[in-house]
Amino acid sequence: MSQPQTQPRPPGLIVQPGWLAAHLDDPSLRLFDLRPEESYREGHIPGAIHLDLEELRHQVDGVEGMLLPADQFARRLGELGVDHTTWVVAYDGNWGLLAARLVWSLARYGHTGAAILNGGADRWQEEGHPWTQEVARPRPTTFVPVPRDEHLAERAWLRRQLGRADLVVVDTRTPGEYAQGHLPGAVNWDWMNGVPVGSWDAVRDDDGLRTELAVRGITPDREVVTYCQSGVRAAHTYLLLRHLGYPRVRNYDGSWAEWSHYGEPREP
């Protein structure tokens, strides 16, 4: 069963505070605050529902942080009021890091009408938009998952694909983590390289960014797989590349935690 083509969509994967402020009263909006619960209770954007990202993750064969299977994910999203008639905006206090993971998770299960709020809670408050302590309550609905494999890299698939000339695997961890061991042939591009210095913006301006990526072989004509330790930092780079128009980008959900757990080939 596929999601109807009338699913509402935000104007892109990243929306600006002013745009969201103009759409806060849209009944099809589902707004999620992924900051710690105490921060949410101190104040949040009106209508925002608090969500702990760990509610959408679980352990698989000793590997922590894996995305919930379709049925469990659908049950939780339905409880949170998300279905094919709604669109989602998520925010946090860390350059959209957790929000990007939620957007990727939704895309994996067929809901592509989701975006992150640029600048998160900090930019929103800085611009003087509405702020409240009133706790929002979701109206449960039915979320129908439609798994889309083009957003996901799994271990068995990745093992078979390594070495393809049109594939680039991007390790989004720190250089120190990368040096201690990484997937064969992976290039290192720390996810923080995509965040502007001294700004709350979720991603850098395009100027120079595409060139920096191209130098590492991360180009739009290749399929890109991002990974980190557990698929969160990698989701931010996934979103950044999608935002730049890269057509084939996957996030390796299990990432290094899973790859190393099973003793897969590694470098050095």
Automatic annotation (TrEMBL):
Catalytic activity: thiosulfate + hydrogen cyanide = thiocyanate + sulfite + 2 H(+)
The protein's name: Sulfurtransferase
A Pfam short name: Rhodanese
Keyword Hydrolase in annotation: no
PROSITE patterns: RHODANESE_1, RHODANESE_2, RHODANESE_3
InterPro entries according to UniProt: Rhodanese-like_dom, Rhodanese-like_dom_sf, Thiosulfate_sulfurtransferase, Thiosulphate_STrfase_CS
Source organism of this protein record: Litorilinea aerophila
Keyword terms of this UniProt record: Repeat, Transferase
Positions of the Rhodanese domain: 25-133, 163-268
GO-annotated molecular function: thiosulfate-cyanide sulfurtransferase activity
Source organism superkingdom: Bacteria
